[in-house]
Amino acid sequence: MNKQIFSFVTVCIIMGLSYPFVRKHTVMSFGGCSRAVNVNQYKIVKERDLLELINTCSKDGVNLNGGKSNYDYLKRNLKNFNCSQSLRFLSAPRSLVALASFPGSGNTWTRQLIETATGYFTGSVYTDWNFVGSNECPSRRRVFIVKTHLTSNSSTSHRDCTRIYVAHLHFACAICILRNPYSAILAEFNRENSNNARAHFDPGHWVAPKQMFTTKRWRMFVSKQVNRWKNMALYWIQKNEPTYVLVYERLLENTFLEMSRLMTFLNITIQYDSLYCLSADDNRSFKRIIPHWMTINNVYSDELREIVNKAVQTVKIGIDSKLNLNGVLNSYFLPIENSSRQMQ
């Protein structure tokens, strides 16, 4: 009899059938990644289950971390996958949350991810043209995530805020986006000095001309902006209000997991189908296509590396070791070669 049961269960597994005492242990692993993403689609995201899902898909050769390849995989394998979401304003006010970053650190992409995950518009202390939520002063409390590049907990120059006589905001907590300063400063220099801001999908456009990186202007820009990067990081990370440090490189590497953790910080529950739709928000939509010569190694001389490395070290010393950011900050250091470097 035992042999018969064993044989029947074996046949069930081979044929993809369910057997009562087999099903309980095969929800995630039985059928692999394709079955797992379907089973979880309308469930509430919990980190432990998400890690199990990522591990299950990894065994199938699927790197479930967000991005275009994930979107294509999910579109092929999910029975019902619809990311045509209608965003909305808050129906009830929430405390304001600063989305603070040095320019060039992925604030725009992060806002889009947050809007997709939550279904709510995000706002800004500026009047940004590309987000509906930026048209209103945050003090109207119809948005709660508010973009800022300022080392200030309250200032705003928003046009609508001026109209209703609001000059200051109050953030109950903050999300601080931390990105490698070498990459962020280069991105901001390109934004300010591009030769064609409307053609950023072509290599060499929406980037600074090559000759500018050997000028005093570039050296002065790095010296000034690295202090701004340092001050942004220290101001927001050291604040008394709760602050979530969102590391850009981690977000890029594992979008699903990092956004799940961010939602936990914001005390927002989301379903896996919302998380899956993050894969449609490819950060490449916001990235310049840069020419082959424009690398960090090429454009930062030893002199500039010393300046940037010193700022990274200052931030490393100034923040709480409990934040577990030492490894990230250590990865930002560039070696000093003490030799002349010419652009290739």
Give short descriptive properties of this protein.
15 helices, 44% helix, Rossmann fold, alpha/beta, 344 residues
Description of the molecule:
The protein has 344 residues and is α/β, with parallel strands linked by helices. The chain has a domain of 236 residues: P-loop containing nucleotide triphosphate hydrolases (Rossmann fold), CATH 3.40.50. Helix content is 44%, strand content 6%. The chain contains 15 helices and 5 strands. Strands 2-3-1-4-5 form a 5-stranded parallel sheet, sandwiched between helices. The longest helix has 22 residues. It starts with a helix and ends in a 12-residue tail after the last helix. The relative contact order is 0.13.
- The low-pLDDT segments are 8-29, 197-204
Give the end-to-end Cα distance, rounded to a whole number of Å.
75 Å
Which strand-content bin applies to the residues?
5-15%
CATH superfamily of one domain: P-loop containing nucleotide triphosphate hydrolases
CATH architecture grouping of one domain: 3-Layer(aba) Sandwich
Short description:
By secondary structure, this protein is an alpha/beta fold. It has helices at 2-15, 20-23, 32-40, 47-59, 68-77, 107-118, 159-163, 181-193, 216-237, 248-253, 255-265, 272-277, 296-299, 302-318, 326-332; strands at residues 97-101, 123-124, 145-148, 173-178, 243-247.
Secondary structure blueprint with pairings:
Layout: H1 2-15, H2 20-23, H3 32-40, H4 47-59, H5 68-77, E1 97-101, H6 107-118, E2 123-124, E3 145-148, H7 159-163, E4 173-178, H8 181-193, H9 216-237, E5 243-247, H10 248-253, H11 255-265, H12 272-277, H13 296-299, H14 302-318, H15 326-332
Parallel strand pairs: 1-3, 1-4, 2-3, 4-5
